[in-house]
Amino acid sequence: MRARFFWLIPALFVLLPAVAQAQRPLAAAGAGSASSARPQAFDILGLTVEGVTSDYTRAFVQQTSKLSVGQKVTLPGDPALADAIRAIYRLGMFSDVKIKEERRFGQGVYLVIEVREVPKLADYKFTGIKGGDRKKIQQQAPLYKGSPVRPSSIERTRQIIKNYFAEKGHPLTTVEVSRTVNPDNTLYLDFQVDKGPRVGVGKVIIEGNKAVSDGKLKKAM
Q: What is the reported pTM?
């Protein structure tokens, strides 16, 4: 029994480093190198994608990363990891992307691509405006149920609302957006519109006109 006891102690010291480096971040958008250790070359032994439920999306992310099993990478700091992050972000499907080191085995490494999906639109509404106006704005708004909701789409819709009512004599229209994220990572939007006072033109003064009558100019305006 004593001999077996002394053989177990070295085995534990061999296993501990591998456990300590599990899920160590290697690259993330906007981040620099995660470690100041001397770079070493490794073969990718495994590559998985976490944060999505669809097998198709998982395979698509892996393909977009252009990382593959058998590929050599230098850790930390391989440019291929940063390139993979940028390529996945450009898809417009994810709000966060990271590449982590799961574990090492000899001169090989297992990597994990961790993503967070952009919330999909559950529904949206406009409050503070009438049904006719609401319908016309909906026809222009770049919002589609079941599709990812990007900040640019929300801002574009805000601007469409303001422009719409400015043309109707409400240049001081304000729009506040209320966002509700559901447990299933879908998003509900409420565009709260305050048209403000109607602004009309009281009097038009034309100066320097000698070609036609002021009346004709005013009719053309």
A: 0.60
Q: Tens digit of pLDDT for each residue in 82-139?
A: 999 999 999 988 989 999 999 999 999 999 999 999 999 999 999 999 999 999 999 9
Residue 82, phi then psi, degrees to nearest 5? -65, -40
Quick one: CA dihedral 213, 218, 220, 221, positive or negative?
positive
DSSP the chain: -HHHHHHHHHHHHHHHHHHHTTTEEEEETT---S--SPPEEEEEEEEEEES---HHHHHHHHHHHT--TT-EEEETT-HHHHHHHHHHHTTS-EEEEEEEEEEEETTEEEEEEEEEEPPEEEEEEEESS-HHHHHHHHHH----TTSB--HHHHHHHHHHHHHHHHHTT-TT-EEEEEEEE-TTSEEEEEEEEE-------------S--SS-HHHHHHH-
Closest by CA to 47, choosing from 24, 71, 31, 28, is: 71
Which burial class, exposed, middle or buried, applies to 12 when counting CB atoms under 10 A from its CB (0-12, 13-18, 19+)?
exposed
- CA-CA distance, 112 to 140, in Å (whole number)? 40
